[in-house]
Amino acid sequence: MNAPAVPPDRLSKPLWRQVLALALPALAQQYLHLVVQLSDQYLAGRFELPDPQQRTGYLSALNTAGYLYWFVSSYTVLVSVGSTALVARFVGAGNWPLAKHATGQAVVLAAVFGVLGAAAALVGLPDLIDALQLHGAAARVCVEFLTPLAALLVFQITESACAACLAGAGDTRTGLKVLGLVAVLNVPLAWGLCFGIGPWAGLGFVGIALGTGLSHVIGCVTLLVILARGRSGLKLHLANLVPDFPLIRRLLWVSVPAAVDSLSAAFCQLWFLSIVNRLGDTAAAAHGIALRWEALGFLSGAAFGTAAMTLVGQNLGAREPARAARCGWAAFAIGGAVMSGMGLLFLLFARPMFRVFCPDPHLSGIVETGAPALRLIACAMPALASQIVFTAALRGAGDARVPVLFSWCGFLGVRIPLAYLLTAPRVDLGALGVVPGADMGLFGAWIAMCTDLWVRGAFFAVRFASGKWKTVEV
């Protein structure tokens, strides 16, 4: 089952149509993933407890769990970025046998990293959550929630790798359909396992996570079956699952720097979360809900980043670097416009958006704390678009090393220091003494986050504009 290198009709289409053809299915896919997260948040907000105030602790636990679950997405970069970049290069060059072989090697890597990640998570979860300043009942609930997700991690990583290979071949529709299945299954599975069915009382809070994990198992198996039968020029053969270490090295040559970038960002995000958690359960819960809604913008950028990564990789494979650059700028322009529109929604409807997850009057403090932060992030949407889309475009070109430095500068030089200074009444610098802080609570933390986004957004735009990525070999 072969297909032309880069379909001629695609080359003849205007760039904006090429971008939208890839980005819109990916956008719908990202939003379906968000539906899974929001449905989990919705169930948590309505989880009945003897003391309504305990629900704040549950929401705080779900926020921390959400951060750690997001860490999984960063971990999958160890496989997904190299898969998309290499498959796109091979497809652009018309080398379909190598594209199929790279797909098989991506599945092998996903299985290996999935097993290793699951083992590490199951052993280290309690200590990690304690380090994130979550204690007591909230910490216990968080560990219980994440345990089934950790146990089933290999399926989610393999699902991501399969979708990444298809995206490299220019097929984002199949991933959309499969994740649609995952989202449709997640709601009844999570609800039934949480609250029970008929005389069965259910598993409680942990049932939400188990339902999510099982829906990803089904998504993974579905994608493997699809690739085994052949789709979009890619087909899994048993021969392609035999480890090919030179090709695996090529995959990792792109993926490892990208994963270092994503994982170091994830670690810094967890550091940032520990600062927020010190502000108490109300601030932590408000932070988590604000991030859920902010994902409307973030995931839009990720979809256009997928388009940029695929088009840049395919055009470089076809030896069209100038066209690759135009594709990257087109993806940023359209993605930035969409994300700015999302920012307008945050400005206008922050309070109603919070009340969706905080209908109980006892949770009004979460609304009052979180709504200003959600409005603030609207101002950073253009910068966030630059950071996300150009990061993906550079990864599609195989330029994944220099961007790591940008992430470190943004987090370690801007976000973390500012977060300490703006959230606390005073900051202990050890031998340097104590300096006064702004004591702005959660709002101060989000000021630090927005400042970081503008710094990194500028760095990535300048790097892409330099054109140095056009000569990177993968």
Descriptive account of the structure:
With 474 residues, the protein is mostly helical. It has one domain (13-471). It is 79% helix and 1% strand. The protein contains 15 helices and 2 strands. The chain has helices spanning 8-12, 15-45, 54-92, 96-131, 136-151, 153-168, 173-195, 205-229, 245-277, 281-317, 321-357, 364-377, 381-396, 402-423, 441-466, and strands spanning 426-428, 434-436. It has a two-stranded antiparallel sheet with strand order 1-2. A hairpin with a 5-residue loop joins strand 1 (426-428) and strand 2 (434-436). Helix 2 packs parallel to helix 7, helix 4 packs antiparallel against helix 5 and helix 14 runs antiparallel to helix 15 (441-466). The longest helix is centred in the first third of the chain and has 39 residues, at 54-92. The chain is globular, with a radius of gyration of 22 Å. The protein starts with 7 loop residues before the first helix and ends in an 8-residue tail after the last helix. The model is unreliable at 1-5 (pLDDT under 50). The chain crosses the membrane at residues 67-91, 103-125, 178-198, 204-230, 251-275, 295-317, 329-350, 370-390, 402-423, 443-462. One of its GO terms (biological process) is monoatomic ion transport. InterPro entries: MATE_fam, MATE_MdtK, MdtK-like. It is a multi-pass membrane protein. It is found in: Cell membrane.
